[in-house]
# Entry
Amino acid sequence: MNKGLLVVCLSLIGSLVQAADSKPALKMSEQTQRPQQWEQQQLQKAKQAAAQTRERQQKVLSRQQSGDWEMQQQQKAQAAADAGDARQQNYLEQAREAAAKERKIPRKSVR
# Structure
């Protein structure tokens, strides 16, 4: 009887150990699954943000390399400078003409 009782006890202990091991394993996998899902979501968000940043950087670089904006600004500045020079020359010409004219200032009679 002792051998039979020993076998029964060992089998009960073995089944209890298996049951105890399986339940925490399931709970552990559920507990570890949530953080892993969250981690995957955060990783995906970070990848998307990095891709968007690269796209914006490429757009800025392409605009800088093409020089279109810079060329336009230089042309505008040159046009403004040319217009200023033309106005200055016009004013100088008017001043020369005014200086060349003979002016007659009426005399006030002094009594």
In short: The mean pLDDT is 79. Residues 90 and 109 are 38 Å apart (CA to CA).
